[in-house]
Write a structure and sequence with these properties.
The complex is a heterotrimer of chains A (98), B (512) and C (641). Chain A has 98 residues and is mostly helical. Helix content of chain A is 76%, strand content 0%. In chain A, helix 1 packs antiparallel against helix 2 (28-49) and helix 2 packs antiparallel against helix 3. Chain C is built from 28 helices and 2 strands. Chain C has a two-stranded antiparallel sheet with strand order 1-2. In chain C, helix 3 runs antiparallel to helix 4 (109-128). Chain C starts with 8 loop residues before the first helix and ends with a helix. The chains are: A mainly alpha (98), B mainly alpha (512), C mainly alpha (641). Chains B and C meet through helix 7, helix 13, helix 15, helix 17 and helix 18 of B and helix 5, helix 6 and helix 27 of C.
């Protein structure tokens, strides 16, 4: 049996990649993809811990469904933004600051 | 079967929602009239079936959030019940008074009803959490009443009102949480139950450091003193009054301010009974009272705006409540004057509510008819507005404490009762009486008497829907100021047992 | 059943009259006046019936509890109360009858009768009160009616201002009175009814009150009386109060309301007796006011104001009598009340005559515009002559008997205590009274008419002259009731009790000495001499006054400016000093208190405007902050930090 730590390490690596992507990327599509990676990192953790009971797997399924919704909404937003501004560079969307 | 208090709340809430949904002025005001009328009738029914005594009556208790010890506990005693009646009565009369309101009538009447409900909730809550919710809920209708229907500087006034009183509420909320936490930590039962908590703190069964009990007391006092308002926390009031529509002013002065006074009786006195609480608070309250009375009087002398003058008179009258409370809790050898002072302060709560409503109501009529409230621009209004002159004169005389009117009974009781305990403060307060009379009579003389100011043109007298509520209030003022069963019953049967009960929480002889 | 059991209706009937008159008065016979007159007629009948009962020895004192333990309302009938009740209701009836004619043309006639009816209710209720709180309530009620009636012609700026002045000046006294009540309550709150006279007026109770407190209470009550009875220095409101209708001046500012202060001192006489030094103040203050007001009466030209100053002066006599009564005890109340009642008759008469003159002269009030009126209005002229004789204390009129007794007692007081000040004051005042009263009469009724109005004056109608004749009869012959009256009212307080209390207050009673003959006839000499002087100056013109009457004459100037008291009170104190304080308070409120509030909000806004720069609008910056925060949290929880 693969030790729990390995799963956790994998999840941590994925999480870090996702977080890094969110922080440095300006392209909205890439940021959205990085968000998915973050979610999946969490899912791996949930599944990894579910060897005691199956609750974790339930949660993982749940969060996959939510991730799907989120991507649908996110992509829709990006398409709308692209139509208005002809770009999905997030730096240009700063009109909500002071 | 729901109890009467819940019934009032439900009727008013339903009425508010329906009124908001109506389309025409006719529908809005009829619905508002009916629902506020039902609220008033239930309140009067409660008063008639109220059994003289100290404890809470018409209590209802439903568990709400049991894990946090929050419950829907309501009930009234000899101070809560008159306040509930005051709130429902004034709101009902306000609906009549505003019968001609043409600007967004459905929202206007809906907010009045919502205000009514929130106020009843404050005065009937027996759970601190519920109390706080209703307390904050009163801000919202008033904010919109000022902000939408107000005068030229309505936005400034509305924001100032909201933020200032909200800051005070936060202090009160922190004090509530502290009470909740220390009681839970000491006894293991975490509860917001007002009666239970106050009982526990007044007997000192909760072990709490003097620092914390004084912080709690100070936070509560700050919350209530801003609401009353006491000088120097009063500056939101004149601004709010000057900008608010007349009905807003009436509700604000007649009922909203009473929340602060109510807090003194319900919360502050029991907390002061705690053995670790500092007795300095007696002096603090007395000083707040006297400074409010004297300072507001002199500021009122310099006012040119009739409504601002009335607003400052409110501050002075609320000062009497502080003075009476201080006189009641201060040390005195005999119980007799202390109970007199306490009951007088309670009586002042009701009395000032009905008197100030007449004042703001008549000033509103003047503004409506002439378009100005600046005293120097008025003059000789009696010529065209004899009925208004009669009502306004009655109101102003009541406000300056003329015997035979309710204000005198209250002020006499407060001054006479407090004299034994805090003579210096009473004498200082009496010093102000002449000046109170001075600014009232000055305003009357300039506005109503003398030659008519022809610049005002041809003005019409008070409308019938404005006259009726004010006349009812004047009748009530006289009924509560002359020897008759209504006055004696309210004072001796309803308020006095509660006052006695509240004072009995204090150590024998009082504090200080 | 006896009349006395229904005595409370004496005060209630005018109240009913007020309500009816207010709401339906103007729809009735001649637009008002009917209900008020009927109600007061009823009061008068009951009062007279009750008087018979009280003369037969009946007394009553009933209390009903009010809002607090020991706070009661009730009514009390004893000799002191009943003579006042009879006088007030009777004089009020006369004046109401007269007003039917006097106010006939007024558009607000029903309102006028409503207000005077309410006033009568207040005055009768004040007299009936058996406790201090109720007395205070009625005390303020009559003050209110006085305010309303002075300002009855509200469209006249002077009337509105005079009403306010009257209310505020008496309010100063009222606050003192209230303070006295509170101080008394503080000392006797253990009694079953702390403010009821029957409980307070006992040796055991008054003995327990510290003497300093007793004196303070008595002086505070005196303060109330000074305000209401318009004594120095709070007398300034009465002359202005003459702006009201003349019937109001007669009813309120001459015959009844202003005597409330005297009644208060008489009613609480046991407290005064028990208070060290209080009665000395009463005697000197009363005497001083009598003289002070008489000097002012010499120079004014307004017919009503002359009478107003004479009222102040005569009230000073009554107060002085109560003060010098410290050497004779309970009988002082009788002496003082006798003057009060005879004064009510002749002063009401004088004012009603003045009203008739005004009526005939289209409201001209200046004496210099009158003259020769006796031929035009003989009834009024003769009636006024009777009133003037009585006021001056001409032998055998009512005023002579009542005033003579006061001056004699003041002399005895001087002989007993060495303090002749009150006697000198009131003796000189008696001389001056005769002079200014007859100055008024001679200027108005004799000589040649000095204006168009005076030439075309006309006699008043029957309904106005009838009350004049009735009152004139009383002003002439009331003196006959003298000794019976003294016995009756003098026995109001238990003389034994008063004696004990006098011991408490440190006063000593003296047996009446034989007063020297010259002292006995001095008052009569003063009266006749004064009339003679007035005759010489204003009828015969033997002395030319015009060279003295000028603004260059300092004495005249001081008198003309009323000793500058009006200026000091109104301009200096009320307007300058307190106006300045008010402006100061207003500025403090606006700039300091509200300034702090606004400063706090300004600071918060400034801080916010700096901090909001953090909000860059770039999502990555926020995300970076989140990640750093999370990392820090993890390290914190993991124990790394």
């Amino acid at each position: 049996m693969i030790p729990l730590e390995w799963y956790l390490a994998l999840a941590a690596v994925l999480f870090s990649i996702g977080a890094y992507g969110i922080l440095v990327e300006r392209n909205g599509l890439k940021v959205l993809m990085c968000l998915e990676i973050l979610l999946n990192a969490a899912n791996i953790n949930l599944v990894a811990f579910s060897r005691e009971n199956l609750m974790g797997q339930e949660f993982a399924l749940f969060s996959i469904a939510i991730a799907a919704c989120e991507v649908a909404v996110g992509l829709a937003l990006l398409i709308m933004l692209f139509r208005y501004m002809d770009t999905i560079d997030l730096e240009t969307f700063n009109i909500l600051r002071w | 079967m729901v109890g009467p208090i819940t019934l009032i709340l439900l009727v008013l809430l339903t009425g508010a929602v329906i009124t908001l949904l109506t389309r025409t002025r006719e529908q809005a005001r009829v619905v508002a009239l009916i629902s506020s009328g039902i609220g008033l009738l239930i309140a009067i029914k409660m008063y008639l079936t109220y059994v003289g005594g100290a404890g809470m009556q018409f209590t209802e208790s439903v568990s709400w959030i049991p894990s946090l010890g929050i419950g829907y506990n309501v009930g009234v005693d000899g101070i809560g019940l008159p306040m509930v009646i005051l709130a429902t009565l004034i709101s009902f009369l306000c609906v009549i008074y505003a019968w001609g309101e043409g600007n967004r009538p459905n929202q206007f009447f809906g907010l009045v009803l919502l205000m009514d409900m929130a106020l009843v909730g404050v005065f009937a809550s027996l759970d601190f959490f519920l109390f706080y919710i209703f307390w904050e809920l009163t801000l919202i209708p008033m904010f919109f009443l000022i902000g939408i229907w107000g005068g030229p500087r309505k936005h400034y006034a509305a924001i100032k009102f909201l933020i200032y009183t909200h800051v005070a509420s936060v202090a009160m909320m922190l004090a509530i949480f502290a009470m909740y936490y220390f009681n839970g930590a000491a006894t293991g039962t975490y509860t917001f139950d007002m009666v239970y908590l106050l009982d526990a703190y007044s007997k000192g069964v909760v072990s709490i450091s003097p620092l914390w009990i004084n912080l709690i007391l100070g936070g509560m006092l700050f919350g209530f003193m801003v609401k009353m308002p006491a000088v120097p926390f009063h500056t939101w009031l004149p601004d709010a009054h000057v900008e608010a529509p007349t009905v807003g002013s009436i509700l604000l002065a007649a009922v909203l301010l009473k929340m602060g006074g109510y807090g003194l009786f319900r919360v502050i006195i029991p907390l002061m009974a705690n053995p670790d609480a500092s007795t300095v608070f007696v002096l603090v309250i007395a000083i707040f009272g006297v400074v409010s009375i004297l300072f507001s009087t002199f500021v009122a002398l310099a006012q040119k705006d009739l409504k601002k003058l009335v607003a400052y008179s409110s501050i002075g009258h609320m000062g009497y409540i502080s003075l009476g409370v201080a006189g009641a809790v201060a040390f005195g050898a005999s119980e007799v004057p202390r109970i007199l002072a306490e009951t007088g302060a309670m009586y002042q709560m009701f009395s000032h509510g009905i008197i100030t409503a007449v004042l703001f109501g008549s000033v509103g009529v003047i503004q409506h008819a002439t378009g100005t409230r600046i005293i120097d621009d008025l003059g000789g209004l009696t010529k065209h507005m004899p009925k208004l002159a009669f009502i306004m004169l009655a109101g102003f005389l009541a406000s300056l404490g003329l015997p035979g009117m309710s204000g005198f009974v209250a002020e006499f009781a407060i001054l006479t009762g407090s004299f034994s305990q805090i003579p210096i403060f009473v004498l200082l307060a009496m010093f102000g009486i002449v000046f109170v009379a001075a600014y009232h009579l000055w305003a009357i003389q300039r506005a109503l008497f003398g030659p008519y100011n022809e610049h005002l043109g041809d003005i019409h007298d008070i409308a019938i829907y404005e006259l009726i509520p004010l006349a009812i209030l004047v009748a009530l003022i006289i009924a509560l100021g002359t020897p008759n069963p209504i006055c004696s019953h309210l004072f001796a049967e309803v308020m006095q047992p509660t006052a006695t009960h509240i004072l009995s929480m204090l150590p024998q002889g009082g504090l200080l | 059943m006896a009349w006395i059991d229904y005595a409370y209706w004496i005060a209630l009937l005018p109240l009913i009259g007020f309500v009816l008159e207010l709401f339906i008065g103007k729809y009735t016979y001649k637009r008002g006046g009917l209900f008020a007159n009927l109600a007061i007629l009823g009061s008068t009948i009951i009062a007279l019936g009750t008087l018979m009962d009280v003369l037969g020895g009946a007394r009553i004192d009933v209390s009903v509890p009010w809002f607090y333990d020991g706070i009661v309302v009730g009514y009390l009938i004893d000799p002191l109360a009943i003579v006042m009740l009879c006088m007030v209701s009777f004089v009020s009836l006369m004046i109401h009858l007269y007003a039917l004619g006097y106010m006939e043309e007024d558009p607000d006639k029903s309102l006028y009768f409503a207000e005077t009816s309410l006033f009568t209710c207040g005055m009768l209720g004040l007299v009936l009160s058996n406790n201090l709180l109720q007395l205070f309530i009625f005390w303020e009620l009559v003050g209110l009616c006085s305010y309303l009636l002075i300002g009855f012609w509200w469209y006249k700026p002077e009337a509105a201002a005079a009403g306010k002045k009257a209310f505020l000046t008496t309010r100063v006294g009222d606050v003192l009175f209230l303070a006295g009540i509170i101080l008394l309550y503080f000392n006797v709150s253990h009694l079953p009814e702390p403010l009821s006279f029957r409980y307070i007026f006992s040796f055991e109770v008054l003995e327990t009150i510290p003497p300093a407190h007793l004196t303070a209470i008595a002086l505070l009550f005196l303060g109330g009386a000074v305000g209401k009875s318009s004594q120095f220095p709070l007398h300034v409101w009465i002359p202005d109060a003459m702006e009201g209708p003349t019937t109001v001046s007669a009813l309120i500012h001459a015959a009844t309301m202003v005597t409330a202060g005297i009644y208060l001192v008489a009613r609480t006489y046991p407290i005064f007796m028990a208070s060290p030094n209080a009665l000395v103040v009463v005697a000197v203050l009363g005497g001083f006011t009598a003289l002070f007001a008489a000097t002012l009466g010499l120079v004014v030209n307004d017919i009503k104001r002359v009478l107003a100053y004479s009222t102040i002066s005569q009230l000073g006599y009554m107060l002085c009598m109560l003060g010098v009564g410290s050497i004779i005890g309970a009988f002082a109340v009788g002496y003082s009340l006798f003057h009060l009642i005879s004064h009510a008759f002749f002063k009401a008469l004088l004012f009603l005559c003045a009203g008739a003159v005004l009526h005939g002269l289209a409201n001209a009030r200046d004496l210099r515009e009158m003259g020769g009126l006796l031929k035009k209005m003989p009834v009024t002229g003769i009636a006024m002559l009777i009133g003037a004789l009585s006021l001056s204390g001409f032998p055998l009129t009512a005023g002579f008997f009542s005033k003579d007794r006061i001056i004699e007692t003041a002399y005895e007081y001087g002989a007993a205590t060495g303090n002749f000040l009150p006697w000198i004051f009131i003796l000189v005042a008696a001389l001056l009274t005769a002079i200014y009263t007859f100055r008024l009469w001679f200027m108005a009724f004799t000589g040649e008419p000095r204006s168009y109005l005076a030439e075309h004056a006309h006699e008043a109608s029957k309904i106005m002259t009838t009350p004049l004749i009735v009152l004139a009869t009383f002003a002439l012959f009331f003196g006959l009731a003298q000794s019976r009256f003294y016995e009756f009212v003098g026995a109001n307080f238990d003389s034994h009790l008063i004696e004990e209390l006098a011991h408490l207050g440190g006063y000593h009673f003296h047996e009446a000495h034989a007063v020297p003959f010259i002292v006995m006839i001095l008052p009569a000499i003063c009266a006749i001499g004064g009339i003679g002087i007035a005759y010489g100056i204003w009828y015969n013109s033997r002395v030319d006054l015009s060279k003295y009457i000028s603004k260059d004459n300092p004495i005249y100037k001081v008198l003309w400016n009323k000793y500058y008291l009006d200026y000091i009170f109104k301009d200096l104190i009320a307007e300058r000093l307190f106006g300045f304080v008010a402006l100061l308070a207003e500025a403090f409120d606006k700039y300091i208190i509200d300034g702090v509030v606004n400063a706090i909000s300004w600071i918060v806004i400034k801080i916010g405007s700096v901090l909001r720069k953090v909000q860059t609008g770039v999502v990555e910056t926020y995300a970076t902050a989140v990640v750093i925060g999370v990392v820090l949290l993890i390290m914190l929880i993991g124990g790394v930090l």
